[in-house]
């Protein structure tokens, strides 16, 4: 074999190592592939963390503080809030360490179902169990409570609002000076007396004097509509506003529910006869007298139009806030020919009704005899 042949083989071998013309090396991973692997990795890690937290909760429970907490914080439980929503509110305010801690406690404690909507003063960093206990304790509710009794006058209601809430007397008076903002019905003629309905009102933090008075007026309007006052008043020959006035008189002149319709009949009979009503209650409304049911000659001489000794007919408006019973009595008076009445026992409310002045005088003498043996008069 010649050397030239060998050289040719070597040359051929050398050529065989050279990459064929146009051929490329294999490409590495694409950008889309790397992104997909990253997303998968993140999902795997998230799943592992979630699984770890679940295992941790099963073994050691959700994060929770211990003890009764410290400091003060006010939280609101909205109307209709469920257990999970309350849990979230507590966690956000740092009352509990985690919403899950409270929620788990609430699921196993039937008291959680009795939590009422409203504002509560709690501590921060309480255990979930302590937080639930605080929410069911009425002492921790932050709210005012104003109870307006039947027959209360505006001046009395002002005092009740100041005593039962954080609203000042000054603010209540200022709100009353703007009656158009209270939602009064047209019949009220801008006078809120008689249209602040007697009821118990819950006053949440931040409630303004105007807000509370609007609630009272709205309650009155709702009740008056439910009783169909305007329509029924026309059947008696009176306006709805006059019925409210009559009802306010009944609140002051009678003590027993059974006497309300009878006193109403006396008032209507006297009005029909053009007789002055001669009611001490209207005189006391002017003098602001308190403590008894009587009046003095000087008080009865007051020229005010509310003085039913001097002026015939009904007073210009209500003398207090009537309740449903007296309104119903004013709309549905008893049958009778009485022109007089007098309460002869101020403790039991016993009242005598008379047709003549002579009979009435005898009843008044009975009252005077009663007063000699008691400190009530």
Q: Any overview of this molecule?
A:
This protein is mainly α and 377 residues long. It has three domains: 70-140, Endolytic murein transglycosylase (Dna Ligase, domain 1, 2-Layer Sandwich), CATH 3.30.1490.480; 144-226, no CATH class; 229-372, no CATH class. The chain is built from 15 helices and six strands. Strands 1-2 form a two-stranded antiparallel ribbon. The protein has a two-stranded antiparallel sheet with strand order 3-4. Strands 5-6 form a two-stranded antiparallel sheet. Helix 10 packs across helix 11 (260-272). The radius of gyration is 41 Å and the shape is elongated.
Give short descriptive properties of this protein.
47% helix; 377 residues; mainly alpha; elongated; 8% strand; two-stranded antiparallel ribbon; Dna Ligase, domain 1; disordered N terminus; 3 domains; 15 helices
Mean pLDDT: 89
Oligomer: single chain
Figure out the total of helices. Answer: 15
* SSE ordering: HHEHHEHEHHEHHHHHHHEEH
Return the structural class: mainly alpha
**Strand composition percent:** 5-15%
Backbone shape: elongated
Unreliable sequence segments: 1-26
Explain the layout of strands and helices.
Blueprint: H1 3-16, H2 31-60, E1 70-77, H3 83-92, H4 99-107, E2 118-124, H5 128-135, E3 144-147, H6 154-164, H7 169-176, E4 200-203, H8 209-226, H9 229-236, H10 240-253, H11 260-272, H12 280-287, H13 297-300, H14 324-331, E5 340-343, E6 351-354, H15 357-372
Antiparallel strand pairs: 1-2, 3-4, 5-6
Helix pairs in contact: 3-4, 4-5, 9-10, 10-11, 10-14, 11-14
């Amino acid at each position: 074999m010649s050397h030239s042949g060998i050289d040719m083989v070597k040359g051929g071998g050398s050529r065989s190592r050279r990459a064929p013309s146009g051929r490329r090396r294999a490409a590495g991973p694409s950008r889309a592939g790397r992104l997909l692997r990253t997303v998968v990795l993140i999902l795997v890690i998230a799943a592992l963390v979630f699984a770890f937290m679940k295992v941790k909760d099963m073994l050691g429970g959700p994060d929770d503080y211990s003890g009764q907490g410290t400091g003060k914080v006010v939280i609101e439980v909205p109307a209709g809030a469920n257990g999970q929503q309350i849990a979230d509110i507590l966690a956000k305010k740092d009352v509990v360490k985690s919403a899950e801690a409270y929620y788990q406690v609430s699921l196993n404690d039937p008291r959680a179902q009795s939590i009422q909507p409203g504002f509560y003063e709690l501590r921060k960093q309480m255990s979930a169990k302590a937080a639930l206990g605080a929410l069911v304790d009425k002492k921790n509710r932050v709210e005012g409570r104003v109870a307006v009794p039947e027959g209360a006058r505006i001046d009395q209601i002002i005092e009740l609002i100041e005593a039962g809430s954080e609203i000042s007397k000054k603010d209540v008076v200022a709100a009353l000076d703007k009656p158009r903002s209270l939602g009064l019905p047209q019949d009220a003629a801008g006078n809120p007396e008689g249209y602040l309905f007697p009821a118990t009102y819950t006053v949440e933090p931040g409630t303004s004097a105007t807000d509370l008075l609007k609630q009272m007026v709205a309650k009155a309007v709702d009740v008056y509509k439910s009783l169909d006052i305007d329509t029924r008043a026309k059947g008696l020959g009176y306006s709805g506003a006059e019925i409210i006035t009559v009802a306010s008189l009944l609140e002051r002149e009678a003590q027993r529910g059974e006497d309300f319709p009878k006193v109403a009949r006396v008032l209507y009979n006297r009005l029909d006869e053009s007789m002055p009503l001669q009611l001490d209650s209207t005189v006391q409304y002017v003098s602001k007298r308190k403590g008894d049911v009587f009046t003095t000659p000087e008080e009865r001489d007051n020229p005010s139009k509310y003085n039913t000794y001097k002026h015939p007919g009904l007073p210009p408006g209500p003398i207090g806030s009537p309740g449903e019973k007296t309104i119903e009595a004013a709309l549905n008076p008893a049958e009778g020919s009485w022109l007089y009445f007098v309460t002869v026992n101020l403790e039991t409310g016993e009242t005598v009704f008379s047709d003549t002045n002579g009979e009435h005088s005898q009843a008044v003498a009975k009252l005077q005899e009663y007063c000699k043996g008691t400190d009530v008069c």
